[in-house]
Amino acid sequence: QVRLVESGGGSVQAGESLRLSCTVSMTTVSTNCMGWFRQAPGKNREGVAIIDRSGTTNYADAVKGRFTISRDIGKNTVYLQMNRLKPEDTAMYYCAAHLGSWCGLTRLSYYDDWGQGTQVTVSS
Fold first, then answer.
1. CB 92 within 8 A of CB 48
2. Which residues pair with 92 in a beta bridge?
3. 115 CB burial (10 A radius; 0-12, 13-18, 19+)
4. Of 94, 6, 114, 85, the residue nearest 45 (C-alpha)
5. What string of DSSP letters covers the chain?
6. Quick one: average pLDDT of 115-121?
7. Could you tell me if 57 and 49 are in contact, meaning their C-beta atoms sit under 8 angstroms apart?
8. Are strands 10-13 and 118-123 parallel, antiparallel or unpaired?
9. pLDDT digit string, tens, across residues 12-58
10. How far apart are CA 35 and CA 14, in angstroms?
């Protein structure tokens, strides 16, 4: 059974950085579309960043230039480096995997497997 485990969340001040990790088992980050999503209280879950099987990345407009998604194939782990954090980045962050050719920030239902999430809280 595929398992995704997020870590690295926490509480920080605006302008600081965090790095989230998503450790994957029973599948590989190189054969999946891997994505980071977030959900703030009272809001829908939204796409933040994705990395496809070739390593191509894409980002939501709200995080472009501040967040970077990457992967370590040897460790079977996907990362989300978050710099210059803002209070509006406060949310539960989830890692997800989609075993298929499509790879995008929308169509959350396409993602087959999800982690339990890690909380990020940014105070002003």
1. no
2. 39, 119
3. buried
4. 94
5. --EEEEE--EEEETT--EEEEEEEESS-TTSSEEEEEEE-TTS--EEEEEE-TTS-EEE-TTTTTTEEEEEETTTTEEEEEE-S--GGG-EEEEEEEE-SS---SS-GGG--EE---EEEEEE-
6. 98
7. yes
8. parallel
9. 999 999 999 999 999 999 999 999 999 999 999 999 999 999 999 99
10. 24
93 contacts 80 by C-beta, under 8 angstroms: yes
pLDDT one-digit tens code per residue, 84-112 = 999 999 999 999 999 988 999 999 999 99
For the beta carbon of residue 123, count every other beta carbon within 10 angstroms.
Answer: 11
Residue located via tokens 């339990």: 116
